[in-house]
Amino acid sequence: MWKQLRLVDDYPDPGDRPMAAVLAPLYEDELGDIRVILTKRPDTMPTHAGHISFPGGRPDPGDDGPVGTAIREASEEVGIHAHQVEVLGFLPPIDTVEFSPLVIPVVARIATPLNLVVSELEVARVHTPRLDDLADPSRWAHVPWNGWKAWYYILDEDTLWGATAHMVRQLVGLADGDIDQ
């Protein structure tokens, strides 16, 4: 599955546009399955409250570009440290409806053991679905939204949808143009 990931080698310069970054952290479990770490944001968050997301956010002045931002945010939110991160590439930048900065998704392999330390202020729950399950088109559904297909995926009692669902679908090769389901 590592070789099937749909990544780009670099990200475009956002120019004058504000930028944010997320880390799409992937790891191999004890059975050799590749899993992704997703978080559910608490309902008390000022943006994207209750949404499933990748760790990430706006840059701090000391960050070294989107990679630095993504790794710092992952450390703060779920305890993934820079020495565990091997950047594999990027997904195309994404605009979100609720958040004005251009979001740069950084895809990385995370060394195990994970030993996640969750920030209760920023994370209500952690999900670690298998990429093989996320790559199965029969497990996804969509509803019409402003002329688009709004894809979603049920994760236990939560729903992966919106920008993060779009990024996950790009990651596993299920971008909207790839299938018509």
Cα-to-Cα separation, first versus last residue: 22 Å
* Rg value: 15 Å
Structural class by helix and strand composition: alpha+beta
| Overall pLDDT score | 89
Question: Which spans have pLDDT < 50 for at least 5 consecutive residues?
Answer: 177-181
CATH class: Alpha Beta
Give the beta-strand count.
Answer: 11
Q: Which CATH-level-2 architecture?
A: Alpha-Beta Complex
Counted up, domains total 1
CATH homolog superfamily: Nucleoside Triphosphate Pyrophosphohydrolase
- Gross geometry: globular
Helical stretch count? 3
Largest sheet: 5 strands, mixed
Q: How are helices and strands ordered from N to C?
A: EEEEEHEEEHEEEH
Helix content: 10-25%
Give a topology summary:
Layout (H helix, E strand, L loop, with lengths): L18 E10 L5 E3 L1 E3 L11 E2 L2 E2 L7 H14 L6 E6 L11 E9 L14 E3 L3 H4 L5 E6 L2 E8 L2 E4 H10 L10
Parallel strand pairs: 1-7
Antiparallel strand pairs: 1-2, 1-5, 3-4, 3-8, 6-7, 9-10, 10-11
What does the model show?
It is built from three helices and eleven strands, in the order E-E-E-E-E-H-E-E-E-H-E-E-E-H. It is α+β, with helices and mostly antiparallel strands and 181 residues long. The protein has a single domain (2-130), classed as Nucleoside Triphosphate Pyrophosphohydrolase (Alpha-Beta Complex). A hairpin with a 5-residue loop joins strand 1 and strand 2 (34-36). The radius of gyration is 15 Å and the shape is globular. The model is unreliable at 177-181 (pLDDT under 50).
